[in-house]
User: Which sequence fits this backbone?
């Protein structure tokens, strides 16, 4: 396998679905992936199911029937005054090849296609500031601790 082939992101089928449109299998897969990464991998017990999934649009990146990448999108007024993106995650086995960048690009585009061109605010893990900055998010100087992890608020503006 060439170096180029091993570092290019996998081709995924992207789906954007409201909560009520998710199949039971899709819901199970997204909750399993979120728990796998945010609770188990990051060793951070927290209440992932926060009572807002039903008001979100769910972006699923699927390959060969397996959920590989996921993000949760909200219109303005639910998580922040602005539209927002959260629970950005990709499967550990699919990391290191640029898929995370594809995921955030897909999430930004889906947010705008769903609710129009507008600012997007995120609560990012502070260690990922440079990653989100590469996609136009700017630290707005609101650091906080959530579930024992340093976070910052960042905004993307059109």
Assistant:
């Amino acid at each position: 396998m060439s170096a180029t082939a091993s570092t290019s992101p996998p081709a995924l089928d992207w789906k954007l679905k409201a909560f009520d449109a998710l199949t039971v299998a899709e819901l199970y897969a997204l909750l399993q992936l979120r728990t796998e990464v945010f609770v188990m991998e990051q060793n951070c017990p927290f209440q992932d199911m926060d009572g807002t999934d039903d008001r979100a649009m769910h972006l699923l990146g699927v390959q060969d029937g397996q959920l590989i990448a996921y993000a949760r999108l909200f219109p303005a007024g639910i998580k922040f005054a602005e539209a927002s993106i959260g629970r950005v995650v990709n499967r550990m086995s699919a990391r290191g090849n640029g898929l995370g960048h594809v995921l955030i690009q897909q999430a930004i585009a889906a947010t705008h296609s769903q609710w129009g061109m507008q600012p997007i605010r995120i609560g990012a893990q502070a260690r990922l500031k440079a990653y989100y900055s590469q996609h136009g998010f700017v630290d707005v100087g609101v650091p906080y601790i959530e579930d024992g992890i340093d976070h910052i608020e960042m905004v993307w503006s059109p």
